[in-house]
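Hey,
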Amino acid sequence: MSIKNLFPSKKKDVLVKREEYHPLALLRDEINSLFDNFSRGFGMERFKERLDTFNPKIDIAESDKEIKVSAELPGIDEKDIEVSTTKNSLTIRGEKKEEKEDKGKGCYRKERSYGAFSQTVQLPSEVDTDKIEANFKKGVLTVKLPKAAKAIKETKKIPVKAE
């Protein structure tokens, strides 16, 4: 038996003025809607897919001369990372491959998981693509993107006056 069958409600096809609709009927409809939304799409397959996806945490810092992007990529080899750029965006792609093997007393278990990721970051200003440096150390990718000369010249500080 569904929750909707517990209480009879007015037909949904008929338009009723809000003043004519009883407050408890409104509450009942809201609760029914809440339960419908809660139970919809709550299958374990979808829940597991959300857990398996890998999205690296990315920090962006900007100074007068460069933009520095750091991405946390734990458990990923440098050969599985690809960095590409345009004048105003940076894309980090990679593949995470993980294997776990457990040889216990009387049991053997081996798990494998694979997953690819791709994140594109819009850069706050134009960069010089010929002078970009990328370093990978202890699971952290650091990309230094020097700003283009045009972007540095166009930056102008404006004084703020108090009245």
